[in-house]
Design brief:
Layout: H1 4-17, H2 25-34, H3 56-65, H4 77-90, H5 93-105, E1 110-113, E2 129-133, E3 136-143, E4 154-160, E5 171-177, E6 183-188, E7 197-208, E8 212-213, H6 219-235, H7 246-255, H8 262-288, H9 297-320, H10 345-351, H11 362-373
Parallel strand pairs: 1-4
Antiparallel strand pairs: 2-3, 3-7, 4-5, 5-8, 6-7
Helix pairs in contact: 1-3, 2-5, 4-5, 4-6, 6-9, 7-9, 8-9, 9-10, 9-11
């Protein structure tokens, strides 16, 4: 059984063999993965040691103290938080060996081809088709709100393979090469002026059957693993006290006493407490992950994340007064990541509006929490057993 002392020993051996100050960053990350210190709870040979997930902090602390490079997790968050756990659970041995190492080191960026113009909140209604042609699948359709598609080498994709089956039953899950012919990425300019989102058009894209995850027609079940991990990665990220959006507001409050009012003080206190409760709840949720896959509680965390971000950013704009109305740059850019705390108040206010849409809309997540967490009666659904081709669109 790998314990904390054993992990410290292995980490120090890695640092001795690959001194961070003199080792190329990518070489160090590859060596860390091969040593099983990337994500210690993964199996041996796949970046882990089969150790408890909670012991990852031991490795991370030792490496941070030594000044070792990380894998820039914000830039590759979709790969780390969504693609990797899905590949680990449903991938073949060949798929795991091929994709997990370059995913973790950041050599290959991933994106998610799920939402469509007519299938966002009701994702199971998606219409992108995949038709079998020998050993390949030919895919045609359109995806939307695709973060990092302009940077991605690979995508996790769900497509309809059986239009005669009910909408949840006729979906299959694939890994799509974003460099293949027929894949077109177009920017979607957002309210911030930037385009970290994209729409993706798939025209006659050929995907080998060897890049299918799970069984044919079982894509909805596979996608649930992705979605539940996505919501935990968004709403349950590890933060220090006053980490995230509450930090800049608290800093401004302390440094700018001339901006303070009694009303703003009361609102800040309330949001500070809620942010701290959310942070501690996220820590508890991560501890629960030690027992296995994330559950539907992650939907509640993602709900709280979106609401808090929007309320806190609104308070910050009010606190700053006229300064809060300023915005640094409307230039059309294709950013590599979303940087909430490294930008100004105007950016945080505008960008947080998307938090209640991305990663599952707040309305859908409320239904999930009500039905799957609280056990309340489900909403009537008349289309569950109707073939997808017969649904009104």
């Amino acid at each position: 059984m790998t314990d904390a002392e054993e992990l410290r020993r292995r980490t120090n051996e890695l640092l001795a063999a690959y001194p961070p100050a003199t080792t190329d960053r990518l070489d160090f990350l590859r060596a860390r993965f091969d040593a099983g210190l990337a994500w210690v709870h993964y199996p041996e040979g796949l970046g882990g040691l089969g150790a408890p997930r909670s012991l990852q902090a031991v490795v991370d602390e030792e490496l941070a103290a030594a000044g070792a490079p990380d894998n820039d997790p914000r830039r590759i968050g979709i790969g780390l938080g969504m693609a990797a756990p899905t590949v680990l659970r449903y991938g073949t041995d060949e798929q795991k060996a091929r994709f997990l190492r370059p995913l973790w080191t950041g050599e290959e960026v991933w994106c998610q081809l799920f939402s469509e113009p007519g299938a966002g909140s009701d994702l199971a209604a998606l219409g992108t088709r995949a038709v079998r042609d020998g050993e390949d699948w030919v895919v045609d359709g359109q995806k939307v709100w695709t973060s990092s598609a302009h940077l991605a080498r690979w995508a996790i994709l769900i497509a309809r393979t059986d239009p005669d089956a009910p909408k949840h039953a006729g979906i299959t899950y694939f890994i799509c090469d974003m460099t293949d012919p027929g894949v077109e990425v177009r920017p979607l300019r957002q309210i911030t002026g930037e385009a970290e989102f994209n729409e993706v058009f798939l025209t006659g894209v050929r995907i080998p059957d060897s890049r299918r995850l799970g069984e044919v027609g079982d894509g909805w079940r596979v996608a649930q693993t992705t979605l539940m991990n996505e919501r935990v990665s968004i709403g349950g990220m590890r933060l220090p006290r006053e980490g995230g959006m509450i930090g800049p507001v608290a800093k401004t409050w302390r440094e700018r006493p001339e901006l303070r009012t009694h009303d703003l003080h009361q609102r800040l206190l309330k949001l500070w407490v809620e942010a701290e409760v959310s942070r501690l709840t996220a820590e508890r949720l991560r501890q629960q992950l030690n027992a296995g896959q994330p559950g539907y509680e992650g939907s509640g965390m993602k709900l709280a994340f979106a609401r808090l971000n929007q309320e806190i950013s609104g308070l910050e704009v009010e606190l700053r007064g006229e300064e809060g109305l300023l915005y640094d740059d409307w230039t059309m850019r294709r950013p590599e990541l979303v940087d909430f705390t490294g930008r100004d108040a105007g950016y945080r206010y505008l960008r947080s509006k998307g938090n209640s849409i991305e990663g599952g809309t707040s309305e859908v997540l409320l239904n999930i929490v009500a039905e799957r967490v609280l056990g309340l009666p489900a909403e009537p659904r008349t289309d569950k057993d109707v073939p997808w081709k017969d649904l009104a669109r």
